[in-house]
Amino acid sequence: MDEIEKAKELLQLQSERLTLRTMADYVKDYVLSCCEKDSQFAEKVNDPEKSFLNCIKYIKEHALEWLKEQQKLELSDYCNGIGGDVPNDICYRWSLDYYNSKPEPKPKPSVSAAKTKSNKLDKAPAKLPERDDKTNSLPSAEAIEETEQISLELT
User: Fold this and answer.
1) Are 53 and 18 a contacting pair, CB within 8 Å?
2) Contact status, residue 81 vs residue 74, Cβ threshold 8 Å
3) Within this chain, do residues 83 and 129 fall inside the same structural domain, yes or no?
4) Given this model, what pLDDT does residue 1 score?
5) Do 65 and 88 belong together in one domain?
6) Residues 6+ apart with CB under 8 A from 154
7) Could you report the per-residue pLDDT of 126-144, keeping only the tens digit for each?
8) Helix (H, G, I), strand (E, B), or coil: what is residue 129?
């Protein structure tokens, strides 16, 4: 199977998962037409580091910035809650920009950060004060507050 056919199948599969299909369908058709004209571009679409979903996110992020700039120039009512339109050719250009850009390198976690996370999870949780058998009462709020809590946040 050549690169163009692989790109076509990949875009079709990935676009089916999107909820805002109107815009996505137009962008997908445009990207497919570019793949048919240029097999090197089709290879970029098939790059495992790229996805059509991320392409749409890329377009949305740039569209939001573009609309904010238009608002600053008082050419759009976007920031007043009315909304705005971005011309199709600009959105198409952003789709090409996305696939033509090099993927950003993924940050590698540092050894110290990995140690910090594992140390938090390796620590045994402190025992809560138990019920007093003589008075059959629950521990006081102060006794509960004195126990150490661990965080399950993965920051």
Assistant:
1) yes
2) no
3) no
4) 63
5) yes
6) 117
7) 554 555 556 655 555 555 4
8) coil
